[in-house]
Design goal:
Pathway: Lipid metabolism; fatty acid metabolism
Number of domains: 2
Organism: Triticum urartu
InterPro entries: Fatty_acid_desaturase-2, Ferritin-like_SF, RNR-like
Order of helices and strands: EEEHEEHHHHHHHHHHHHHEE
Distance between the termini: 64 Å
Number of helices: 14
CATH architecture of the largest domain: Orthogonal Bundle
CATH class of the largest domain: Mainly Alpha
Strand order of the largest sheet: 2-3-1-4-5
CATH superfamily of the largest domain: Ribonucleotide Reductase, subunit A
Strand content: 5-15%
Protein name: Acyl-[acyl-carrier-protein] desaturase 2, chloroplastic
Largest sheet: 5 strands, antiparallel
GO molecular function: metal ion binding; stearoyl-[ACP] desaturase activity
């Protein structure tokens, strides 16, 4: 017999993972598309607040066999969860319940509470049912509208013709493996009889390092550990990607060898921090996994013009950051850590030289297209590689880490302006001639941008002085001044 069954869905914000707890009841209404339901959202006193009620109008259902309902309970609950989250996203709801898409979560709503009663509008023997779904790893949030393959096809020929140039001018900035330093060169030797004494000495030195510096060092290390993402990004670029995984082109050889050299940076910092005993390695390891799974959104559009401008900027940024952490380590009396950060900075400087050479060559071949690409990247702003950083707790972890780095002078908005000014001078942007109308506008924009950024930084500095403290899971939840 058919019956009109009003359904009340109640959702709450819950990040835990539990099992389904419910009794059988008809689920035929789930065959309808959730987005077709008109939804009324209002506060509900039952069960405990904070709650929001989604009142769906009655739908005709038929009493289902209890056994078959039991077997479909899990899938029905999962459907309800997805349906509700889709519906909720288009309606104004309280901040605590707002669906927040991120690299690490499906939505913040993953618990459904619903009430069922027979037709007639009278609540007779009503029961509450609770369904929670397992949290799966979701794709990263798309921070910006995604643009792909923006380089005109005819410009592919430029990069194909530059393979010989890259072989002669790019690969010389790589070091032979046998002449490269390795992480073990700077760490206690586990095969040595003095290993335990060396570790003890390292830990004694590390006791003098303050938490805010550790946060910066950990943030830098996590950024380095997301290397798979950066190789992936380079291999999205049209005309220069490694098409086979072992391509012999100079562009592909560079990408693989650059990745291999960079791999030592995260390894060394990771092992050093592990030996200090000062940081929560499990929280750090979670952050690394979240970050690699999240990817990054550099807005390079598969376009090697944009991609190599981005890498030129980023290599100089990491050179500056590691150089500043080396200086701080020396101030704190840890000369070994200063040496570690310094040797990493020297690698970044060498890589910066290689990437800036590529863009310099593009300015020589195609000045108009390259200056437009540089202006485009600067208007979009250079996103830091770890901007999707998350530790399972702090939704704004990267922002908070950046604020600490800004306060300590590890990497600042002034550094950002200095990098831009350096690159504009390195590539002789003010001296470009023969540009189109749009090219001249881009040139004017770039030549004055660094000064404008510095003025904005001065205002931001005064606001930053009012920032409070923030707990960081990397240092066992201890609070750090922002």
């Amino acid at each position: 017999m058919a019956a009109a069954v009003p359904l009340i869905l109640l959702l709450r914000s819950d990040a835990n993972t539990t099992v389904v707890e419910a009794e059988p009841l008809p689920f035929n209404f789930l065959r309808a598309q959730a987005t077709s339901f008109p939804v009324r959202i209002d506060p509900s006193p039952e069960p405990p607040a904070p709650m929001v009620r989604f009142a769906f109008p009655p739908h005709r259902t038929r009493t289902a066999d209890r056994q078959s309902v039991r077997s479909t309970l899990n899938s029905a609950g999962a459907f309800m969860l997805r349906a509700a989250s889709v519906t909720v996203a288009s309606h104004p709801i309280p901040e605590w319940l707002r669906a927040r898409y991120h690299s690490h979560a499906v939505v913040s709503i993953n618990c459904l509470l619903f009430q069922y009663w027979p037709a007639g509008g009278r609540v007779r023997g009503s029961r509450w049912f609770r369904i929670e779904s397992k949290k799966t790893f979701a794709p990263p949030k798309e921070v910006h509208v995604q643009v792909t393959h923006s380089m005109p096809p005819q410009k592919m020929e430029i990069f194909q013709s530059l393979d010989g140039w890259a072989r002669d001018n790019l690969l010389l900035h790589l070091k032979p493996v046998e002449k490269c330093w390795q992480p073990q060169d700077f760490l206690p030797d586990p095969a040595s009889d003095g290993f335990h004494d060396e570790v003890k000495e390292l830990r004694e030195r590390a006791k003098e390092i303050p938490d805010d510096y550790l946060v910066c060092l950990v943030g830098d290390m996590i950024t380095e550990e997301a290397l798979p993402t950066y190789q992936t990004m380079l291999n999205t670029l049209d005309g220069v990607r490694d098409e086979t995984g072992a391509s012999p082109t100079a562009w592909a050889v560079w990408t693989r060898a650059w990745t291999a050299e960079e791999n030592r940076h995260g390894d060394l910092l990771n092992k050093y921090l592990y030996l200090t005993g000062r940081v929560d390695m499990r929280q750090i390891e979670k952050t690394i996994q979240y970050l690699i799974g999240s990817g990054m959104d550099p807005r390079t559009e598969n376009n090697p013009y944009l991609g190599f401008i981005y890498t030129s900027f980023q290599e100089r940024a990491t050179f500056i950051s590691h150089g500043n952490t080396a200086r701080h380590a020396k101030d704190f009396g840890d000369l070994k850590l200063a040496q570690i950060c310094g040797i990493i900075a020297s690698d970044e400087k060498r890589h910066e030289t290689a990437y800036t050479k590529i863009v310099e060559k593009l300015f020589e071949i195609d000045p108009d297209g390259t200056v437009l690409a540089l202006a485009d990247m600067m208007r979009k702003k250079i996103a830091m590689p770890a901007h999707l950083m998350f530790d399972g707790q702090d939704e704004k972890l990267f922002d908070h880490f950046s604020m600490v780095a800004q306060r300590l002078g590890v990497y600042t908005a002034r550094d950002y302006a200095d990098i831009l000014e350096f690159l504009v001078g390195r590539w002789k942007v003010p001296e470009l001639t023969g540009l189109s109308g749009e090219g001249h506008k881009a040139q004017d924009y770039l030549c004055t941008l660094a000064g404008r950024i510095r003025k904005l930084d001065e205002r931001a500095q005064s606001r930053a002085k009012q920032a409070g403290k923030m707990p960081f899971s990397w240092v066992y939840g201890r609070e750090v001044q922002m």
